[in-house]
Amino acid sequence: MELILWRHAEAEPGEPDLGRQLSAKGEKQARRMAEWLHSRLPDSARILASPATRAQQTARALADMSRRKFKTLEQIAPGATAQELLAAVGWPGSRSPVVAVGHQPTLGLAASRLLAGAERPWPVKKAAVWWLSSSDGDGLEQAVLRAVINPDLA
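Predicted structure:
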């Protein structure tokens, strides 16, 4: 399985939290990362997004560019656990690549759980992508980090 953890781009401050929109900088970040992802993802990739407006806008940048739809999932909303996110994306069993557009600390906790075997508060920069693959090593399912990129480098 290919799992792409994508943190939402920079958002404006404000309340309510779920309604916060991307800033002008965040819109540029989302477009830049969407271009990077679009050139690398197969047509079979699925896009899943948190219901938070900033995550929806981030996912929409890729969906519009690739002419794909995205699905909104409560299981990756702010405050979700790493386990909820991994269950929602179907790790490690999904055959199609999955892009999960979500939040901190959930994304960092999920990445550390998969790569280090324990949930640690790993930082994931706004709009950054962590691309992981499942691998069958010695009969055990394990995660392999393929790429980490942020909008400054895309």
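Summary: The mean pLDDT is 94.
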